[in-house]
Specification:
The complex is a heterodimer of chains A (103) and B (516).
Chain A (H helix, E strand, L loop, with lengths): L4 E7 L4 H18 L3 E7 L4 H6 L7 E6 L4 E4 L5 H7 L17
Parallel strand pairs in A: 1-2
Antiparallel strand pairs in A: 1-3, 3-4
Chain B lengths: L11 E2 L6 H4 L4 E2 L3 E6 L5 H14 L4 E6 L4 H9 L5 H6 L3 E5 L9 E2 L6 H14 L1 E7 L1 H7 L3 H17 L3 E7 L19 E10 L2 E11 L8 E7 L3 E4 L15 E2 L4 H6 L4 E2 L3 E6 L5 H14 L4 E5 L4 H10 L4 H6 L3 E5 L7 H15 L3 E5 L1 H5 L4 H17 L3 E7 L9 H6 L5 E10 L2 E11 L9 E6 L2 E7 L3 E2 L7 E2 L2 H10 L4 H9 L1
Parallel strand pairs in B: 3-8, 3-9, 4-5, 4-7, 7-8, 15-19, 15-20, 16-17, 16-18, 18-19
Antiparallel strand pairs in B: 1-2, 9-10, 10-11, 11-12, 13-14, 20-21, 21-22, 22-23, 24-25
Helix pairs in contact in B: 5-7, 12-14
The chains are: A alpha+beta (103), B alpha/beta (516).
């Protein structure tokens, strides 16, 4: 398993979605990724060109640049299972609950 | 950023799209968002791109192009054929793209609540970067396919639309429709940009595609109503043809011009009027092209310039025909008095023909215009389209004080009217009928001036012959009736005498009096 997971989280200022995403991200990193990560948080209000370069539409958006393949997750990351599935990370050995999440 | 205007009057932004500003009563409502809805292939993207392009080229207003569907590279490439160097404008800082096109194979996973905050930030960034006054978003339907949650997308697009309003830009949002006549757009996107709606159609009528534009509503502004045909020309872009909005204001003159035939001039009371439209109707092989040729020769002799639009014969054929009647087209062409424009009607739609004819007229500036034949054009269009074409052409040439002679072919050999006539006879100023007359097992030819607006004219049906020197109009048919109805019958001399006695005076004098 790779030791370096490069993550970029795009948020818009301090909107509730953004705040939640940052908090959720931090807890996922601590609980699931155990220090094998590098996380950059980008505020698109301050650096819109970066959002343009990455073609970010929705915020929050989480991009896993490394290791390949590139993966994207949108939303406030409240559904941890889906975040991990979306990032192609080691899925947690739990039954996949797929309710109406993603709202 | 907010620049809300409190003025009650909504001003218009001139788009620069040919013909559109006229139909739209000056342009798009300034500072507002307009929904441009149309089915697939209805030229939404071209129209939306031209809105940006004309802003940069004509109005020195920079633009932002937000694309949800094609990549900016594709758009640049596609629009190049219309003569717009979008890539160059990007380099010059006049245009900015916001690329929101979908990445195939990179569908994001949704995990929780989200919004279009990044998109709004990018649009704002792009608008500020090039100081844009115009924004195009193409197309809204494509964004619904990128996300699962349609209701959320709709809600977020509403945010984008209201953000656009606060940026002091005039914007066009395109959206797909499924049916030409039905709900405004898919996914109910009209709900959040319901102020102004334009619909583009690409309807199939009688195996022909016909593009039309309709302004459904401009809230608080005036505009022309109904569908207007339009076309797309390479190097120009969208050209809207404001037919029914044309003003009936042409001047009319009393100056007479020769028909090229002395006898016919006499029958018409001294020639045609300078800015009149003459329709020559007759069966095949009846001398319509000859009459057109004489009309051209008569003009050329007086130093006038003639434009011949031929839809049935090639330049060479026309030259050979003219030589056969003793006219030298080649010499006229050399002197710059005659120009040919020969084309099969099927090569383009009527709207394209109309625009081509207009530009020919603008370049050559003719005094006389001949269309041979109008019936040939009719077969490539629907009845409505044809009628609009004729109105568009006649009003255009009348404004230019050009005399127009159109020929129309009747379907039956003996008498009868053509569909062409019934549809355009009220638009023309003069109608000349050429008819075959069967007498004693022989085909003879008869001619009559059916209508001559603003002038008295000869009401006889005269016999004419055609030989190597052109058309020769002779005496009236005296003892034949039913020529025009295609049923010539000979009247007994004695009976004719009795009819003459019924009306005391000579018929011809009676006719003259009646006209006065």
């Amino acid at each position: 398993m790779e030791n370096n997971i490069s993550l970029k989280l795009y948020v818009t200022g301090h909107t509730p979605n953004s705040e939640r995403a940052v908090a959720n991200m931090k807890s996922i990193c601590e609980n699931e990724l155990e220090g094998r990560y590098e996380l950059i948080i980008i505020d698109v209000l301050e650096r819109p060109q970066l959002a343009e370069d990455e073609k970010i539409l929705a915020t929050p958006t989480l991009i896993k640049a490394l290791p390949p393949p590139l993966a994207r997750v949108i939303g406030d990351l409240s559904d941890i299972e889906k975040v991990l599935v979306g990032l192609n990370m080691e899925p947690i050995q739990k039954s996949e609950k797929k309710g109406g999440s993603g709202k | 950023m907010s620049a809300k205007k409190n003025s009650s009057q909504i001003s218009k932004l001139e788009t620069g799209i040919t013909g559109f500003d006229f139909v739209a009563g000056g342009g798009l409502p300034k500072g507002r968002t307009t929904l441009l809805a149309g089915t697939a292939g209805s030229a939404k993207t071209v129209f939306a791109a031209e809105f940006i392009a004309q802003g940069i080229m004509k109005a020195k207003e920079n633009g932002v192009f937000i694309t949800f569907e094609e990549s900016p590279a594709d758009i640049c490439r596609n629009m190049k054929s219309l003569g717009w160097d979008m890539k160059g404008w990007v380099d010059e800082g006049k245009l900015a793209f916001v690329d929101a096109s979908a990445d195939i194979g990179n569908q994001p996973v949704t995990a929780g609540d989200w919004d279009f905050g990044a998109l709004v930030a990018r649009i704002e960034h792009a608008v500020n970067k090039v100081n844009a006054k115009r924004v195009t978003m193409d197309s809204l339907g494509a964004i619904f396919t990128q996300f699962d949650d349609g209701a959320r997308v709709r809600h977020e697009l509403f945010r984008v639309a209201s953000a656009l309003k606060s940026m002091d830009v005039t914007s066009i949002l395109t959206a797909e429709r499924i049916h030409e006549y039905g709900e405004i757009a898919r996914f109910g996107v009209e709900e959040f940009v319901a102020d102004n709606v334009i619909i583009l159609r690409n309807a199939l009528e009688h195996e022909k595609r016909r593009r039309t534009l309709e302004i459904l509503k401009f809230r608080g502004c005036s505009h022309q109503k109904g569908e207007y045909p339009f076309t797309i020309l390479p190097g120009t872009g969208v050209v809207v043809i404001p037919l029914s909005a044309m003003e009936l204001q042409q001047k009319s003159s009393n100056i007479r011009i020769t028909s090229g035939n002395v006898e016919l001039d006499k029958m018409c009371g001294g020639g045609f009027f300078r800015d009149s439209i003459i329709l020559v109707s007759g069966a095949t092989g009846n001398g319509k092209t000859l009459m057109a040729t004489e009309f051209i020769a008569g003009g050329a002799k007086n130093g006038e310039r003639c434009l011949l639009l031929a839809f049935e014969e090639s330049r060479e054929q026309l030259m050979r025909n003219a030589t056969g009647w003793g006219f030298d087209y080649e010499q006229m062409e050399k002197e710059g008095k005659l120009k040919f424009a020969c084309e099969y009607p099927e090569t383009a739609g009527l709207e394209d023909h109309l625009i081509k004819i207009r530009s020919e007229i603008e370049i050559f500036k003719p005094n006389r215009l001949v269309v041979d034949s109008l019936s040939a054009l009719e077969r490539v269009s629907s009845i409505k389209g044809f009628r609009e074409f004729v109105i568009g052409l006649t009003s255009f040439i009348k404004h230019g004080e050009v005399a127009g002679l159109f020929t129309a072919t009747t379907p039956s050999l003996m008498g009868g009217t053509s569909i062409t006539e019934t549809h355009i006879s009220t638009i023309t100023d003069s109608i000349i009928l050429l008819r075959y007359v069967e007498m004693y097992g022989e085909m003879r030819r008869g001619l009559t001036v059916l209508k001559m607006r603003g002038s008295m004219h000869d009401k006889d049906i005269r016999e004419y012959t055609i030989d190597g020197t052109g058309m020769h109009i002779g005496k009236p048919f005296r003892d034949i009736t039913g020529i025009i109805s295609g049923n010539p019958t000979r009247i007994q001399q004695g009976e004719l005498g009795r009819i003459d006695e019924l009306f005391a005076e000579d018929t011809r004098e009676a006719v003259t009096k009646e006209a006065e």
